[in-house]
Design brief:
With 132 residues, this protein is mainly β. The chain contains one helix and eleven strands, in the order E-E-E-E-E-E-E-E-E-H-E-E. The termini are far apart. The model has no long low-confidence stretch (mean pLDDT 96).
Length: 132
Amino acid sequence: EEQLVESGGGLVQAGGSLRLSCAVSGLSLNEYSIGWFRQAPGKEREGVSCISSSDGSTYYEDAVKGRFTISRDIAKSTVYLQMNSLEPEDTAVYYCAAEAGRDINMKNMCLAIQRNYEYDFWGRGTQVTVSS
């Protein structure tokens, strides 16, 4: 059974850091690209960062460029999102999602959420709260 489980969320002060993990089971990071998405109260879910299954190429939303870093450990079947210099605007539930295919453009993968694209698998999310 395919499963994605997020962890690492919590409450942090502005300027602080968190590292989120997306532990994957039942599927391979060599075959599935992974994206991190977030949804703040009253807002649409948005793509934050995506990493390719084929070559590890990445995409970042403009709001997080230079602050967030996505990475993966294929041996551990885990994708990470290192979040530094956190801002209150980063407060949201963070989800990871998996999409099959080795030739997917990561910007397209992250932005497809805007068209209500149905990704293959989703995790249940982890809450990140940044206090001012």
